[in-house]
Transcription antitermination protein NusB (Knoellia locipacati), 136 residues
Amino acid sequence: MAARTKSRRRAIDILFEAEQRQLNAGELLKERLAAPVTEVPLNEFTADLVSGVVDHWNEINDLLTTYSQGWSLERMPAVDRAILRIGAFEVLFSEVPEGVAISEAVSLATELSTDDSPKFVNGLLARLAEVKPTLA
């Protein structure tokens, strides 16, 4: 598994854990950076992903809700929400090429979520990439 893919997966873990424990993801990130719970501390890319999602939290959630066509955020599997938030951040606010961000998100959905999730993640993130020029 490539280093950036591992970083994305760790960012998903932090967002997922924060939601499950009803914690602020930014605060959980600070805790993990100060006192790592794994042998390998979090790297800068993981921290940047989580921080980016936290910084754009409301906008990302609003866009996911708007373009998910009948699926509220609450109805989505929790792991899909984490994957989509990171994918949306990368598609909309980062220097990562949109195709790479979408491909990585779909790959992680294939590995971590339901059989229907990769198609859903692909469609929703592709739609965000399509409307991105109109969001500025």
The chain is about 70% helix and 0% strand. The chain has a mean pLDDT of 95. The helical segments are 3-20, 25-34, 44-55, 57-67, 78-93, 98-112, 117-131.
